[in-house]
Automatic annotation (TrEMBL):
Residues 311-424 form the Mur ligase C-terminal domain. The gene is murD. It is an enzyme of class 6 (ligase). It comes from Halobacillus dabanensis. Residues 116-289 form the Mur ligase central domain. Its EC number is 6.3.2.9. Pfam families: Mur_ligase_C, Mur_ligase_M, MurD-like_N. GO terms for molecular function: ATP binding; UDP-N-acetylmuramoylalanine-D-glutamate ligase activity. The keyword Cell division applies. GO terms for cellular component: cytoplasm. Belongs to the MurCDEF family. This is UDP-N-acetylmuramoylalanine--D-glutamate ligase. Cell wall formation. Catalyzes the addition of glutamate to the nucleotide precursor UDP-N-acetylmuramoyl-L-alanine (UMA). ATP binds at residues 118-124. SUPFAM superfamilies: MurCD N-terminal domain (SSF51984), MurD-like peptide ligases, catalytic domain (SSF53623), MurD-like peptide ligases, peptide-binding domain (SSF53244).
């Protein structure tokens, strides 16, 4: 496995373990760097932490003493740790670089790099790009905010292998030299304000995906998103649009076909994925791989068979003529809006979760097809009020996912869609959106 060469830092603090921190610490230790680890809740007796100690790491747990910064010249933080953390705030004050492990990957990976970001659709688009490159018989690796830590994946890639990585705003904020050959910016919507505090901060974090690109690189961007447009004058990369509304340039679609520039790629009717959001994801992926020289045959092969990513408008089953869809990854209003647009059948919507102070008025115009709502979590009462404002009379509040699925089924008729699309993060009741989605799937199969 590769290690860091000519790395300009010798004393690194890794703040927060989990998958990304552990991978970063292992890479740094294997590269001969002195590593200190600070994690509030880590147990030194676990096999994972003991392995790091045996490799030479100095591990500090149980608190965040400022002394962990002594002699440190570089800090790698877990993406989820906010910048208000006293250690990070002090590091910034001391002018110590604060990065995420994605930055370490940029020291390692030597082949083509495709990076995908956006408020919604990242995982589906990243997976599509990966599958299209693979279908073209090209060497490709999948990484980033999709379950595969970038700096760990980059240790095994070579200069002929494309790395496709999904990146959140949390990860991008902690980059300095990170430079994709092809970056993909899907959309820009209000999200994660509990972390970034202002919309401007969130937007700037997303814009870092193209910050270091040059005229040799490419930015694939959503030409229908006016918020992204405001950043384009500062982008030095070649601009390649994708659009549902505009025709003729980049990746686009009409009623019958999807195109790249003037070239028809395939019939829309042959695409398995449903929904307007997925059409945007598809067009973004097509633009990215066409820039990368991937053949149309590979694109068509994938789009004729790819049925979606788990927890992202995932078809679960058909039971007694009811259709069940798991969209647990819909952690904001825009994602739920896209999900609702995907169906013409009557919908019973399961929604709710962590209260981030969001109001749901913008969801109301998209609830026309919703015949009933089952709400849960911290936002249950707010969503109940929103549903009734939208004219939905059948609204029920529940405590568990089993209750939610049973109540939804009891209210359904043949041909109805029972859709979990929460419009909220999961952390009030579940550790992850995946756990929430799995609970939904389990409850559906119990019916």
């Amino acid at each position: 496995m590769k290690t860091l060469k000519n790395f300009p830092y010798q004393h690194v603090l890794v703040l927060g373990l989990a998958k990304s921190g552990t991978a970063a610490a292992e890479l740094l230790l294997d590269s001969g760097v002195e590593v200190r680890i600070n994690d509030l809740k880590a147990d030194k007796e676990t096999a994972e932490v003991q392995a790091l100690i045996n490799k030479g790491a100095d591990v500090v747990t149980g608190g965040h003493p400022l002394s962990v910064l002594d002699d440190i010249d570089y800090l790698v933080k877990n993406p989820g740790i906010p910048y208000e953390n006293p250690i990070i705030a002090e590091a910034v004050e001391r002018k110590i670089p604060v990065v995420t492990e994605v930055e370490l990957a940029s020291f390692l990976h030597e082949g083509p790099l495709v990076a995908v970001t956006g408020s919604n659709g990242k995982t589906t688009t990243t997976t599509l790009i990966h599958e299209m490159i693979k279908a073209d018989q090209q060497a490709v690796a999948l990484a980033g905010n999709i379950g595969h830590v970038s700096c760990e994946v980059a240790r095994t890639t070579d200069d002929k292998e494309t790395m496709v990585t999904e990146l959140s705003s949390f990860q991008l904020l902690g980059t300095e030299r990170f430079r994709p050959d092809i970056s993909v910016w899907l959309n820009l919507y209000e999200a994660h304000l509990d972390y970034h505090h202002t919309l401007e901060n969130y937007h700037r974090a997303k814009a870092k995906i193209a910050a270091n690109q040059t005229a040799e690189d490419t930015l694939v961007y959503n030409a229908d998103d006016k918020k992204i447009e405001q950043f384009l004058p500062d982008v030095k990369a070649k601009l390649v649009p994708f659009s549902i509304e505009k025709k003729g340039q980049g990746a686009w679609a009409d009623e019958a076909f999807i195109y790249f520039n003037e070239e028809p790629i395939m019939k829309k009717h042959d695409i398995v994925l449903v929904g307007e959001q997925n059409l945007q994801n598809i067009l973004a992926a097509v633009a990215a791989v066409k820039v990368n020289g991937i053949k149309n045959e590979a694109i068509v092969e994938v789009l004729k068979s790819f049925a979606g990513v788990k927890h992202r408008l995932q078809f679960v089953t058909k039971k007694n003529e009811r259709l069940f869809y798991n969209d647990s990854k819909a952690t904001n209003i825009l994602a739920t809006t896209y999900a609702l647009k995907s169906f013409e059948n009557p919908v019973i919507l399961l929604a709710g979760g962590l209260d981030r102070g969001t109001t749901f008025e913008s969801l109301i115009p998209h609830l026309d097809s919703v015949k009933a709502m089952v709400v849960f979590g911290e936002t249950a009462d707010i969503l109940s009020d929103t549903a009734r404002e939208a004219g939905i009379e059948d609204v029920i509040k529940v405590e568990t996912m089993n209750e939610a699925v049973n109540e939804a089924y009891d209210r359904s008729d043949e041909e109805d869609v029972i859709l979990l699309s929460p419009a909220c993060a999961s952390w009030d009741q579940y550790r992850t959106f995946e756990e929430r989605g799995n609970m939904f799937i389990e409850a559906v199969h119990k019916l």
